[in-house]
Design brief:
Distance between the termini: 58 Å
GO molecular function, one term: plasmanylethanolamine desaturase activity
Structural class: mainly alpha
Largest sheet: none
Number of strands: 0
Strand content: under 5%
Family: Belongs to the fatty acid desaturase CarF family.
Helix content: 55-70%
Main location: membrane
Membrane topology: Multi-pass membrane protein
Pfam family, one: Lipid_desat
Amino acid sequence: MLLPPPPPPPARALAPGISPGAGARAAGPELQGEAGRRERQGEEGEEEEDSRGRAGAMAEGAPRRAAGEAEAAASAAQEEPEGACARWGAQHAGARELAELYSPGKRLQEWISVILCFSLMSFNFYNLLFCLRPEHAFSIIVGIFAGVITADFVSGLVHWGADTWGSVDLPIVGKAFIRPFREHHIDPTAITRHDFIETNGDNCMLAVLPLANMAYKLVSLSPEALHQSCPWECYVFALAVFATLTNQIHKWSHTYFGLPRWVTFLQDCHIILPRKHHRIHHVSPHETYFCITTGWLNYPLEKIRFWRFLENIIQGLTGEKPRADDMKWAQKIK
């Protein structure tokens, strides 16, 4: 007697950390219709369940977690064909080469920037307290909110510029400032292995000049002039603080173990960049959702195609193709 054929095996779900296929990557954020949106929602649900499982496993201790991560890395390496280059992560040929370009001189610049920035920030905060007046309360709140919005936009502008244009081979700025952006796309979790200095050094450097100018005004202007300019100074201070913390917030958006509860609370309330929100940017070819302080401006800027508009102008004027250098490093095999 003939037996009926066995039922087909169920489709294997993607393991955590494994990128979806080309079709899923092509879906893009809110840009490819309802089907793509449903696919992302399903993936996010699976990832959320997986994150909860991982969070439960944290109670079993760091040694076991480290062993599990090492085992996962070894398993991923075994899945690659012999002699093939890792598609992403710390073992990617481009990621290894870019990491080796981090120099002692760069480290010194980061240390100096961090010390100067936080010294000026503390000085300015202390002196601002003496400028506050109850009648300025509404203007100060508006100024702080505007500072946060501006910081989010500036983070997107800098992020878009460094992701889209330039090359690691450029003198001075290439290895010092563009290199981390190239490394991040082919090894997104490298930022979670950076210490506080490496994570925040460049942002601190950008904030030093406005903070120094603010400190000068706080010690040179008359009390009456300072009272009049207090809302503006609060705007500048909020902008400088959130710009300084942007890459730390960005690091938290890639961190899934050991975050303080107050950080996850701020992420869940979308006061700072949430982890799920930032995943949209890491869909190849990394052409959207560039704002990484709060992420509030990502959706409206995407709806008006702001970044595409700028790219079309620059490409038309220069002939340069957006993200050409980023793609070159992503395809590096040795």
